Q: What sequence folds into this?
């Protein structure tokens, strides 16, 4: 069996991030349950810190270009903890799109290669416009 390019600690970080995603989805499905949304956020932040390391995580959130996204993400987390889960989730979602918007094209390219549903995802990505930006440029 081929080994992955992740270390054991990074694999644990991926598990934390996945758990955070499941808790976030569960929190939304349970009509914005405050405890599940908060747990999902905490697990996601722990997983991200384990995957890329504490210093790179701090640098990622402290970049000047991403200041608005960082502020929105943490303001949304604070609103969730202060018992405003719907508004907090919307604010946090905005922050996530600002912070991780650069990765959407990469994720879309990876999703195109999924064996059975990849072509359908590719058609959806082309319609929405998340695919490769500036694909018509010669360089």
A:
């Amino acid at each position: 069996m081929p080994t992955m390019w992740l270390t054991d600690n990074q694999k644990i970080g991926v598990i934390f991030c996945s758990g955070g995603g499941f808790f976030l989805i569960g929190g939304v499905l349970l009509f914005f349950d405050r405890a599940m949304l908060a747990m999902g956020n905490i697990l996601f932040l722990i997983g991200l810190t384990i995957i890329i390391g504490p210093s790179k995580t701090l640098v990622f959130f402290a970049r000047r270009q991403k200041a608005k996204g960082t502020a929105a993400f943490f303001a949304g987390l604070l609103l969730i903890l202060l018992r405003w889960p719907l508004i907090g989730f919307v604010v946090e979602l905005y922050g996530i799109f600002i912070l991780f918007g650069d990765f959407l094209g990469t994720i879309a390219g990876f999703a195109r290669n999924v064996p059975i549903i990849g072509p359908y995802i590719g058609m959806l990505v082309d319609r929405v416009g998340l695919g490769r930006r500036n694909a018509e440029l010669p360089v």
